[in-house]
Design a protein that fits this description.
The protein is α/β, with parallel strands linked by helices. It has helices spanning 15-23, 63-84, 104-107, 140-147, 149-156, 166-170, 174-177, 230-243, 268-276, 293-302, 317-325, 335-338, 355-367, 369-386, 389-404, and strands at 2-6, 28-33, 43-47, 91-95, 113-116, 160-163, 180-182, 203-205, 208-210, 215-223, 247-254, 285-289, 305-308, 329-332, 348-350. It is globular.
């Protein structure tokens, strides 16, 4: 088959599928993207221009929509060039959230679409208004309405859709859910696996030496920001570090903002460091920034307690991989996390907004090794039952067959 895949960041959510299809040596795989240094053997990249820079002349509500229209236009131009060169795909895959799929059917009206639907924004009941520390602006309803414009156009366009979790499926309007199938994403369970040997010897992780007698608490996000509970875990540190002098904490994440609002000044890391200054021994707290995948995996494998926090929003890949590694997890008691973690069976669930209870959850794991061991085994068994890469790829190929008839 001839596949066309669309996403501004190559290879995005399609990495495992692309590797699987390329290994079959019978498909023509083309991927339209913005300039990226990554590559996948057997996949041809078509590099397109990025969207036009945002202008202050645009209405604030419309800036994201304008960027999406720009991406849609750029993709359609690249697609038309491919068509002129004689390429007609049998199916088009892509992520609906960035606008790139909106016009591609104008180029190939008869080619089926299979779109990735990640999240539908709601004014209440999910991430918006969840954290009282950051109240929603008065015009949030209007902002959300316009933010969902891309989603709504995508749902009105032809094609099938899928989303990775039941929680994400529940964010979409009732009238749209029949058009979306839940396709649970898989994890490389051979790579993401327990390695208890790392806790029996001194190891260097992200430039920090961790001795076997030390208890390592880990926290991993793309960016250190409130949406992923960075402010909350920082407020949990005084209680945690005071209770256990053998605890060392490594926090992985950049200083950008992937979701939500920017801090009043500087970065969220600087903001929270200033807030707890003097309350903790910062020589036991390490900010690793963004780290190579191999380092990240070793951190999870060495971890004595792994903290995963998020608003009621899209669950991170790191949660799946932490379960596959067999981490003893302290997770936020919110719907997307409850889909993965069952309290006291595959992890501990704690209130997102209560730092002391988060610290107490970590301390319970550090002090009760039988409980921690049971939760580690439970997380790994759950991953083996629910995150098999083979099952995910089989499900994806079944959706592809359904789309192309």
């Amino acid at each position: 088959m001839r596949y066309l895949v669309l996403h501004q960041n190559f290879p995005a959510q399609f990495l495992h599928l692309l590797r699987h299809l390329a290994a079959q040596n019978k498909h023509d795989l083309v991927f339209i993207t913005e300039a990226q240094r990554h590559s996948v053997e057997g996949v041809r990249k078509v590099v397109r221009a990025g969207p036009r820079a945002a202008s202050n002349a645009w209405h604030p509500y419309a800036r994201e929509f304008e960027l999406a229209m720009s991406r849609a236009e750029m993709v359609a131009r690249s697609a038309f060039s491919l068509k002129q060169l004689g390429f007609t795909p049998d199916i088009i895959l892509g992520h609906h959230g960035w606008g790139e799929m909106l016009h591609v059917n104008d180029v190939w009206p008869d080619t089926p679409l299979l779109g990735y639907h990640e999240y539908f924004y709601n004014v209440e009941g999910f991430d918006v208004g969840f954290d009282p520390e950051f109240p929603s602006p008065a015009d949030m309803t209007a902002r959300i309405r316009i933010k969902n414009a891309i989603n709504l156009i995508a749902l009105a366009n032809p094609g099938l859709g899928h989303t990775p979790t039941h929680f994400q499926h529940s964010t979409y309007p009732a009238w749209a859910r029949d058009r979306l199938e839940v396709l649970h994403e898989g994890v490389n369970l051979d790579l993401c696996c327990p390695n208890p040997d790392l806790r029996s010897r001194m190891v260097t992780l992200a430039g920090y030496k961790v001795r076997p007698e030390e208890k390592l608490v880990t926290y991993v996000v793309r960016d250190l920001e409130p949406y992923r509970g960075f402010h909350v875990i920082m407020r949990a540190l005084p209680r945690l570090l005071a209770a256990r002098p053998d605890v060392r904490v490594i926090l992985v994440g950049g200083d950008g903002v992937s979701y939500g609002f920017k801090p009043p000044a500087g970065t969220w890391r600087e903001h929270m460091q200033n807030e707890i200054a003097g309350a903790v021994d910062m020589s036991r707290v390490h900010f690793a920034g963004r780290v190579p995948y191999e380092t990240y995996l070793k951190l999870l494998q060495r971890s004595d307690a792994h903290v995963y926090l998020t608003y009621p929003f899209v669950a991170s890949w790191s949660l799946r991989e932490a379960m596959a590694v067999g981490c003893a997890i302290v997770g936020a008691d919110v719907a997307p996390v409850r889909e993965f973690i069952t309290h006291r069976k595959t992890g501990l669930l704690v209130p997102f907004l209560k730092p002391d209870e988060i610290a107490d959850g970590v301390l319970e794991l550090l002090e009760d090794q039988r409980l921690a061991g049971r939760l580690r085994r439970g997380a790994r068994v759950w991953a083996e039952r629910n995150l098999q890469m083979g099952a995910y790829l089989e499900g994806y190929e079944a959706l592809i067959r359904k789309a192309v008839g």
